[in-house]
């Protein structure tokens, strides 16, 4: 099975999400996650590696005049956010462990900024 992630660029109109979902439903493809913002639908789904479903779905979606483009993406926005958060916390904890062992002057400037942001309640 292959994991496919797309950003579907669309015009902003009522029923656009339903039109996209119906294409997946007709082809029997289950959407594992979906995020929607104005003019963009982020979709994650699985297909058999040997099947041509990805090509069929893309062709059927692009047949709609309100679908502008379909772009392959590495991660959906929520996945990218989780990745960034993990990276932030790993760097923050690394900086804090240096601070505990060597004192506050041993932390690099970006880590100090992260600590300041955290103390001010910013994300």
Short description:
With 123 residues, this protein is an alpha+beta fold.
Give the class-level CATH name of the largest domain. Answer: Alpha Beta
Question: What's the number of structural domains?
Answer: 2
Backbone structural class: alpha+beta
The second-level CATH architecture of the largest domain is 2-Layer Sandwich
Q: What is the CATH topology classification name of the largest domain?
A: Alpha-Beta Plaits
Proportion in helices: 40-55%
Alpha-carbon distance between the termini?
36 Å
Average pLDDT works out at: 81
Summary tags:
2 domains; disordered C terminus; Alpha-Beta Plaits; alpha+beta; 4-stranded antiparallel beta sheet; 123 residues
Structure description:
There is one protein chain. The protein folds into two domains: about 1-75, ACT domain (Alpha-Beta Plaits), CATH 3.30.70; about 80-120, no CATH class. Residues about 105-123 have low confidence and may be disordered. The protein is α+β, with helices and mostly antiparallel strands and about 120 residues long. Helix 3 (about 75-100) packs across helix 4. About 50% of the residues lie in helices and about 25% in strands. Strands 2-3-1-4 form a four-stranded antiparallel sheet, with helices on one face. The radius of gyration is 21 Å and the shape is globular.
